[in-house]
User: What shape does this take?
Amino acid sequence: MSLFTPPGAAPATAPRPAPPATRKRARFHTLTVEEVRPLTDDSVEVTFTVPAPLADDYDHLPGQYVALRTTLDGVEVRRSYSLCRTPEHRSAEQIAAGIPTRLSVAVKRDEGGLFSTWAQTGLHPGFEIDVMSPQGTFTSGLDDLDGRHVVGIAAGSGITPLMALAHTVLTRSESARFTLLYTNRSTLDVMFLEDLADLKDRHPARLTLHHVLSREQRTAPVLSGRIDEEKLRTILGMLIDPAGVDEWFLCGPLSLVELCREVLADVGVPRERIRFELFTTGDEPRREGRQVEVRAGQRTTRIEVTLDGVSSTVESPVDAHESVLNAALRVRPDAPFACAGGVCGTCRARVIEGSVTMSENYALEPDELERGYVLTCQSHATSDRIVVDYDV
Assistant: This one.
């Protein structure tokens, strides 16, 4: 899942490293489930086998995400999940021998969540599922970690990308430090509890863990109860000195991320040192691909879409209030998207001609908006003709 910025908000990101090579076109490939490992009573880690010929397609940076696609009850379902393990290093011998690599995500059951509920029981070794190539910019500058102090604040399944980030920061530099503030309801809800303990054992002086439990009493009162503004300010005063932090990573629900951003800004943390990612905005994912009919005499908008070097045109009725993505899917079923809620950024494209308005934007940064990039799942045409390019 990429960097998510609430509508109208300023960016909260430090200078971003380039993805491996250039920005990759998001594509699905069918992968096989190698292992399903229970993490808690309601979460699992799912590991996929990546065949050697596809290894480059799934090369990624720690903190990036993939989208999973399957059909449940006759309906296509897509969900995005962050990669929880660092990229596997392949030696020249392994590459030559065609040895496969692995890719892991963690899935936590959401109340009433169709896909996450199914994943707890329906996914098993040998199952095949479509996995999109890694996307997202929720990652750190990895070339200059010496002496840096990175802090992650996570809630629940927000720990997923921070697992990969923490491991990378600590292993790529012997002088870098990582502090994790991780909030859950109880000890039983802590995902990757043993993995975090193992990481702490390997880097006792450079990894600091603060587990905050909202429904379980801890010895230190500051680590008990829900994180609200007062508690966060207390934590920053007692446990984490903002002045000594080089980079912040926030991951969790919108309410926690917004609280942390506001408090950090108030205590003087520059916004360019804060990155954040949302796992949920509280809204249900939208379903794209709904049928729209064009009747004779209707006023329409002409939408031209370029994808993989091929241009297609579709007419969209003005009174249908159809998203650009939905219209594009009628002529290009391979148009990329995942969450369809303005969160993941997979459907990002550039408006070459015409104009659109976006309902939500949790993924694009101001510099991208200035260059004409939009989230097609949230974009609605405001001119009689628009030209959108996914390839730029």
The chain has three domains: 28-132, 149-280, 300-389. The two ends are 20 Å apart (CA to CA). Residues 349 and 390 are 4 Å apart (CA to CA).
